[in-house]
């Protein structure tokens, strides 16, 4: 699935939505599989530390950002492509990069991932609820919105639009995602 010309070249892309339940994690995984099927290398990073769609407790991004783990220790072996799961925080987060060195550690992770993978796909918390996606987006080449057209999100959509106005990172496309039961 090509969202725009941005996907024609390698890069780091942030995926977000207005609210929870729009199928974002499933769609990001599907895009990763599609890219692998055409011979691209992909790393999926689950940065939704507030409500991950993937499960791997006590490791992953939380362990990397706040626990001092090395990149090699948090990447799970690939089924089709490698994944860094979110992990579970020991207490609620007020901001993703709340600890002094965590933003620098994230920047280093993305820099290393750019050198090793054709595409880095970052699944984030819903931007209509949390600002995490904007903090992460500054390290990316673009933001991709996931929207379930059958799911009304009203105020969350308005918050999403307001938050996107604050970001210098381009929104490179919107994927209308219809979940099939």
Provide an overview of this structure.
This protein has a single domain (5-176), classed as Rossmann fold, CATH 3.40.50. Strand 3 and strand 4 form a beta hairpin. A 7-stranded mixed beta sheet has the order 3-4-2-5-1-6-7, sandwiched between helices. The mean pLDDT is 81. It is α/β, with parallel strands linked by helices. It has helices spanning 24-37, 60-67, 71-74, 102-116, 132-137, 154-165; strands at residues 11-17, 42-47, 75-76, 83-84, 119-124, 142-147, 171-176. The chain has 6 helices and 7 strands, in the order E-H-E-H-H-E-E-H-E-H-E-H-E.
Protein topology:
Elements: E1 11-17, H1 24-37, E2 42-47, H2 60-67, H3 71-74, E3 75-76, E4 83-84, H4 102-116, E5 119-124, H5 132-137, E6 142-147, H6 154-165, E7 171-176
Parallel strand pairs: 1-5, 1-6, 2-4, 2-5, 6-7
Antiparallel strand pairs: 3-4
- Kindly identify the CATH topology: Rossmann fold
CATH class: Alpha Beta
Radius of gyration: 15 Å
Helix content: 25-40%
Based on the coordinates given, report the CATH architecture: 3-Layer(aba) Sandwich
Mean pLDDT: 81
The domain tally reads 1
Helices and strands, in order, run as: EHEHHEEHEHEHE
**Which spans of ≥5 residues are poorly predicted at pLDDT below 50?**
none
User: What structural category do the secondary elements indicate?
Assistant: alpha/beta
Measured distance between first and last alpha carbons: 21 Å
- What name goes with the CATH superfamily? P-loop containing nucleotide triphosphate hydrolases
Count of helical regions: 6
Share in β-strands = 15-25%
Instruction: Strand order, main sheet: write it out.
Output: 3-4-2-5-1-6-7
């Amino acid at each position: 699935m090509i969202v725009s010309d941005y996907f024609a070249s390698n890069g780091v892309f942030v995926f977000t939505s207005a609210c929870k339940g729009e199928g974002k994690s499933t769609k990001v995984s599907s895009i990763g599989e599609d890219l692998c099927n055409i011979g691209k290398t992909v790393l999926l990073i689950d940065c939704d530390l507030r409500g991950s769609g993937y499960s791997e407790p006590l490791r992953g991004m939380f362990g990397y950002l706040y626990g001092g783990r090395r990149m090699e220790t948090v990447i799970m072996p690939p089924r089709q492509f490698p994944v860094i799961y979110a992990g579970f925080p020991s207490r609620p987060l007020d901001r993703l990069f709340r600890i002094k060195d965590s933003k620098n550690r994230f920047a280093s992770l993305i820099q290393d991932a750019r050198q090793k993978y054709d595409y880095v796909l970052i699944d984030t918390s819903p931007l209509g609820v949390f600002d995490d996606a904007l903090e992460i987006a500054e390290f990316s080449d673009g933001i991709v919105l996931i929207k379930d057209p059958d799911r009304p999100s009203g105020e969350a959509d308005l918050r999403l639009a307001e938050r996107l106005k604050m970001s210098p990172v381009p929104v490179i496309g919107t994927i209308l995602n219809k979940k099939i039961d």
